[in-house]
Amino acid sequence: MITIVMAYYENGGMLDRHIKEWVNYPDELKDQFKAVIVDDGSSKDPALPHVQDVGFPIELYRINVDIPWNQNGARNLAMTHADGWCLMTDMDHLLLKGQAERLCNMQLRTGYYYRPLRVRAVDKEQYKRHPNSYVLHRDLYWQAGGYDEAFCGWYGTDSTFRRQLAKVGKLVDTKEFYLLLYGREVVPDASTTNYGRKDTKYHVSNSPELRQRRGAGSKPIPPLNFPWERQL
Fold first, then answer.
1. Do residues 119 and 179 touch, judged by C-beta distance below 8 A?
2. Per mean pLDDT, which range of 14-18, 190-194, 228-232 is the poorest?
3. Does any domain span residue 227?
4. Which of 7, 102, 114, 216 has the greatest number of beta carbons closer than 10 A?
């Protein structure tokens, strides 16, 4: 069983693309998947109306406050409800049917985590690996402490989790499968546009306290510091 783990934020068109792909997985492949999606406080286009029956379980959770750049918290919530081996990625990364088959045929080893190849949807060219997409076991995720929610509200904080994860597991850059990356030129809501990224007030480099916390390698604070509910 593989759990597909993704955070959602005003990405209705992109979620529709995932649903369309998942529906077309063959039945024997659907038996090997479930999805856990966390709506990270969407107000204009919530995830719930977009979720349809695809032939494998989809669990939908919603964070009931809109915290800028709270993907760390959303991933913690999703991984609280994930099972076994997980494909943890972003909404703009699609697992095609053929690549799902390749993923299921991988020999996954305890204590290891895997980073897939990446191909751009716009031109089908291979692109650099995504630094925040992994195949990893739920247990290893929590051995690393999950994402540190002290950084929620800020952009550019995933390197902290990468360092935590490297302390408890071994990274493998696998060539066994790839994720298809959708840019906003293909699907306009493929990724977040509501909040600024680098060179804006949301960039973590603007917080001396968090820069110091990251440098000190502090233990993550206890997770799920927000109200949430299960919707499906």
1. yes
2. 190-194
3. no
4. 7
Distance CA(5)–CA(115), nearest Å, equals 14
Number of domains in the chain: 1
Helix or strand or coil: residue 206? helix
For 82, the token pair is 């994930």
Inside any domain, residue 228: no
- What are the tens digits of pLDDT across the range 158-183? 778 999 999 999 999 999 999 999 99
The letter for the amino acid at 71 is Q
Is the predicted pLDDT of residue 215 greater than 90, yes or no?
Answer: no
Q: Is residue 56 part of a domain?
A: yes
pTM (two decimals): 0.91
DSSP structural state of residue 185: T
Q: Report the DSSP pairing between strands 93-94 and 33-39.
A: unpaired
Enter the DSSP assignment of 203.
B
Specify the CATH number for the domain of residue 79: 3.90.550.10
